[in-house]
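hey so u asked for the seq, here:
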Amino acid sequence: MRRGSLAGLLELIARMLEERGALAIYGGPGTLRTRLALLACSRFSPCLYVGAGRHARLEVLPAWVTARRALSFYDELLEVVKATGLVKRGAVRSIVVDELLANLVPYRASLSESVVARMLLTEIELLREFAERGGKAIVVCGEDPRTGGPLALRYLRRLRPRLLRTSVSESVLTVEERDLADPLTVLWRTEVDAGEVERACARSLSS
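ran it, structure tokens below
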């Protein structure tokens, strides 16, 4: 394992987005997934941040980010639709969808699994179109302990994202690229001072 700088990690993520156009950042709560996503999209501003679940309450964000509250799946889908229309004009260059699936949870009590799956696929297809039009799509979500990959991996594969898994231990952020075909396979791993990530986010909020 190599210890790296935050600047080097962000440069690597930027290259990954340039090559593929889509990225999924996943891990457990408190593993700096959202902060890493926001710092990564600084290279591709203006960025649209669509926060779902508890992240819909985020109000203070970096200057290069426009926040949109997604209090329902309809809100979330509408923002992705709008972004897909704006990307060709350069009005939006990147999008972060934070806590994918959070707004779908309420529907699982009243709708069949196949209907909920189609709803999710609709959003993923729109994100794929966003990336195909030259935008950079970043999805932030939890980890599925059964697969070692992000939640809803079977659907996310339609987006063909690069996978980054985050974990934090003793003030060290570990970032691993995982294989999309087999998320238990680690392609590379690096460590970054977690405090460096926190300080970079704090600076972006004060600028």
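The chain has one domain: 2-198. The domain at 2-198 is CATH 3.40.50.300 (Rossmann fold).
lmk if thats what u needed
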